[in-house]
Fold each of these.
Amino acid sequence: MKCHLRNLLTLVLLTVFILSPSLYASAKKLIPMGESIGIQLQLPFVYVAHDVLLPNGQWLKKGDVITKVNGLPVTSIEKLKQHFTTNDLTISVKQKTQQQRDISLTNEQANNILPFIKDETDGIGTLTFIDPESKQYGALGHQIIDGVLKEPPSFTDGSIFLASIEQIKKSKPGNPGYKISVIENNNIRLGNVKSNDLYGIFGNWESDLKQSMRKPIEIMHEEEIELGQAELYTAIEGSKVEAFAIDIVKIEDNFLQFIVTDKELLQKTGGILQGMSGSPVIQKGKFVGAVTHMFVEQPSRGAAITVNEMLKKEPK
């Protein structure tokens, strides 16, 4: 997080508040995107990202939440550092299913654990749409689950940034590939993250809509979707969004299955990659849905959620 459909793999492993469903209910046209984005969520606590063996033989375990230092609560790495001024420290840690335990550290030992702790969740995904009327966006098509905490994290603030693809690790049967990317444009924020819901992340778009060369298009209703040819918008090189050919092979309720038929995409990526979650699916000039999953043993095959279902943001 994680799968919505059996035998499928979530594409973003992070790689995330409920907005009123009425915010999108009246949207008639959306701008299909496809840009790769970096996502950062600021958490209201500090946790251990890797197992750490301390000099006294005790362990800080992956997923431990550091709740206190010398009896004083901490909610961020910055506040944690403020307590690292005394020589003898007692940190209190807790995991969800365990009791709180105290660990004694020297000042030097405490500073040595800083590279192994975090107070944010981050990752890479794909921007799905922008609503030109409400100036809100949707991305990913599924919820962000923190890879260490194994749950959707609570967060106090969130941001999205434009990411540039530097390298591709191709997907192979049984071995999903992924995008290697970096944040572009001096970390200029494109928008905030207001909601991390079952069907994606949503928030306010803060950048200039004129920067997008694509125009708003109509949403295709479920009964209009047909088996056969369609397109997938995504970025696999730099920040350039390209259209790639796919075939929709199954329509079931509000979900689709498709096969990548584009020879260039298959040659460069092997099919669907981690990081493609949220890539728009277009058919006959209308907005169909967003990529959400891949078949692990057949990476040329993927799944998508319809835009209409994604806009609900939670099952009814």
Amino acid sequence: MATSSKEKIPEYSRISELNCIDVSDPDTQSTVLLLKKACLESGFFYVINHGIDEEFIDEVFDQSKRFFNLPVEEKMKLLRNEKNRGYTPLFDQSLDPVNQINGDYKEGFYIGIEVPEDDSDAEKPFYSPNLWPSVDILPGWRETMEKYHREALEVARAVSRLIALALDLNSDFFDQYEMLGKPTAAIKLLYYQDRTSEPANGIFGAGAHSDFGLITLLATDDNYGLQICRDKDAKPRLWEYVPPLKGAFIVNLGDMLERWSNCVFRSTLHRVLGNGQERYSIAFFVEPNHDCIIECLPTCQSEENPPKFTPIKSQDYLLRRYSDTHVNLNLYK
């Protein structure tokens, strides 16, 4: 009999219990209170009843698997470019280089906002045409991913409005800051090979890190792997597995929200451990407009609690973080 993913969890592992945020609930006040509790306690929560059809999400996973099952030489034709579009091979990213020996044991594929080459915005670091597999090899692939990007962005908008209310702001605060009107939101398809991670030896599916932007929406298959650490300063750190929840997004807060909120809401450390089974997930990184200035919110500061971070332009922060965690493209030449 096949071993289930849950049975692959090491004995005595901690399992995280996260709040479920129902974005369709008409009782907005109760939803905001539940979300705020989640943001204060763990920075992670589930989002349910988000409006994306479960069968369509299954289709996105199927298309993702089709791409990662292609021969390496086909995938390398779509190698990630300087605008962070395209395929990321094994070890292309190292999210915790101090504690990793080779980098992340995962492959990926970035899909961002589609901006034509002749558009003036295409000069910005995270805007450009996407890289797409040939329709002869993967028919319908582009259409599926573009639809998913549109629908995931609508879910992100709904969640951002609840977060704004939880921070005592107007619900449209982040839209006013051109964050979700013209963001740098990107899908990253992820494939973890069937290797068992060895934390003591520096081998991880994905090293410990926090995400860069406002929030991340994560869809996963039914294999365990994602772990969170509620207190990054604890010694030793205590890691908890986040159980997959069919049809739900796992949502976590990013560094820019931590900066905006003056650390009221934290960007939580997380990592992925391989358990000897293949694992697929789909991350949707919601990051601000290039020119958005990230600075302490008026509702999150006082004389006793002054701003902890200097203001920074979104583009500058993202460029640094992506550069720090990805290998130099010259290494592939």
Amino acid sequence: MNIILKNIIRFVVLVFIQVAILNNIQVSGFVNPYMYILFILLLPFEIPNWLLLILSFFLGFSIDIFSGTIGMHASACVFMAYVRPYVLNYLSLRDGYEVGTYPGIAYLGFAWFFKYALTLIIAHHSFLFVAEAFSFANFSETIMRIIFSTFFTLTLIITSQFLMFKK
């Protein structure tokens, strides 16, 4: 399947899952699963940074439109996309990344993907929840939301990797 078509389908499916199912899940206000960021995580290594930022903005903006959150998801996704090349550089393999491979469990293994996804999910959730609170008044509550939502989102993303995206 064409790489562009594959990513368009992934974009639409993840936005639909987020809006139709996951936005309705909240456990006592601390757990908010955000699986839509899997789109950013799975973009190819070779994608230009400018395109990565634009696609991330449109992903977050799509979620904002359906959630009524006025730019919070868009800004968090752009931040995540901005940090992604640095994380990839930090986690890079000795010989670099092969052309045509994707940052997924099927290509690079569980340990690498776990570190990669965990780092970027923490970056996204920290930005999102701090921007949402926009105050240090309930800082411990914000930290708890970041931790619990990161754990739940990471569990969903890794489970989806094992179920759907096999080599």
Amino acid sequence: MHVELHNDFVDNTTARRGADLISACVHCGFCLATCPTYLDTGDERDSPRGRIYLVKQLLEEGEASEITRHHLDRCLTCRSCETTCPSGMRYGALADLGRGLMEAEAPRSLPSRVFRTALRRVLSRPALFTPLLRVGQLLKPLLPGALGRKVPPRQTTGARPQKQHTRRVLVLEGCAQKAATPATNAAAARVLDRLSISLQAIPGAGCCGAVDYHLGAHQDGLAHMRRNIDAWWPELEKGAEAVISSATGCGSLLQEYGELLAHDKHYAAKAQRISELHRDLAAYLLEQDLETLQPTPTKARIALHIPCSQQHALQQPDTTRAILSRAGFELVVTRDDHLCCGSAGTYSILQADTSERLRQRKLTALCGDTPEIIATANVGCQMHLGEEATVPVQHWIELLDEAISP
């Protein structure tokens, strides 16, 4: 698909990048069948192909309308379309680029800007998010039904290993996960300890940058990336062998640090090295000798939810299933595994109605074979599904940790 850039965009590096990305699209329409929002609304403007045309229109006409922003906002960036695209169209990169241009070319109303800025600042900063969450957990019994369900219960994490092994990896503690589901990384630390590997959280590292970047605040997102690199780099120079993410949503951005900071002469090389050293937790464990764990798995029937970020962005749809199957867990049959649950970072807040419909569809697909537990690999999905699920929703590493605990 060819793009004739408007005169206002001829010298705009971002716009030229957008035109290059669009050129890969052959408007075949295969993406429609795997796009959750198109399947929900039936409106082609809520499909990848429709949104590509809307961004193309922006680049060629030099201006954007509320309609363009509305349909870009409704995109989950689940990237299911990329998995089915025969021409290798990098739709996720185009969607992020389009959102950034929209924020500049068609500013939102003041109330909308204030709300989105507050949302970004709170969610990406544990120092703000954690105390607010603790207040919500304290008041949870007093909150009305729908609001109360949005507040996850406070988790007990158990003790983290104290022994320091020769082999060590760094972990992204994240922002929401650090406060809402701290049991995830505590369980990961115990599992890795059994493999004689230390899991280290480094002060100064925090949000991966996804909250800001996916909401069009690219410079703020890049600032988070640089801050993480600065925090991790001294430890990598001392021999840490990998940067581990236990939230696949964060991991899908970590693997793109090199590309997103390629223009930054001070950080380009370091960012590329971070991307090369990044490992999703499941992928990293599959590289280890798991026979030494000798798990005794629960007899509960488990429905495995594979987050979009794991199967479409990281392109690792089978890693978690392989680990749990080898460990002896009973995995039930699920349907429509390729479709998003509706969490998608801040999507469940900003597009609540669509998000709730997608969640109900996903829960129906997960629970058709009567599971007793739902296991997932991403904090956002865990919290979103957990609001309405009739069975517990846990991170899969917690199940493995329980199976190997003495």
